[in-house]
Write a structure and sequence with these properties.
- By secondary structure, the protein is an alpha+beta fold.
- The protein has a single domain, classed as Nuclear Transport Factor 2, Chain: A (Roll).
- The chain has 3 helices and 4 strands, in the order αααββββ.
- It is globular and about 40 Å long.
- This is YchJ-like middle NTF2-like domain-containing protein.
- Residues 27-118 form the YchJ-like middle NTF2-like domain.
Length: 121
């Protein structure tokens, strides 16, 4: 088994791998988990493709040497075409542990979820 980095007890191909391969994420939480997995796997093109056009940067650079250690989804609120996902992602860089606590906003357009932006906690 090839465990998915997103923290769900599933094989990568059956979990975030299908979203990375082009299938639309089934929910805002699934998209958020797949974006975390994309950071772990260095999939910069996927991160850009799933970022809403109104807020998307020109490019995404994943910091060399950054090791992602785990993801905890704390709260999901999905109302129609809009959603928020609060999460904590742990990482380590050059021996220093870090924690990213964010509430991310998502929107669904034409059947696909997109990351809009996030508020750090």
């Amino acid at each position: 088994m090839n465990p998915c980095p997103c923290g769900l007890k599933a094989d990568y191909d059956d979990c975030c791998g299908r979203w990375h391969a082009g299938a639309p994420a089934a929910s805002a939480e699934a998209l958020m988990r797949s974006r975390y997995s994309a950071y772990v796997r260095g999939l910069e093109d996927y991160l850009l493709a799933t970022w809403h056009a109104d807020t998307r940067p020109e490019r995404v650079e994943i910091e060399a040497g950054l090791k992602w250690l785990g993801l905890e989804v704390r709260r999901v609120l999905e109302v129609g075409e809009y959603a928020t996902v609060e999460f904590v992602a742990r990482s380590k860089l050059a021996g220093r542990a870090m924690r990213l606590h964010e509430t991310s906003r998502f929107v669904r357009e034409h059947g696909r979820w997109f990351y809009v932006d996030g508020e750090l906690r």
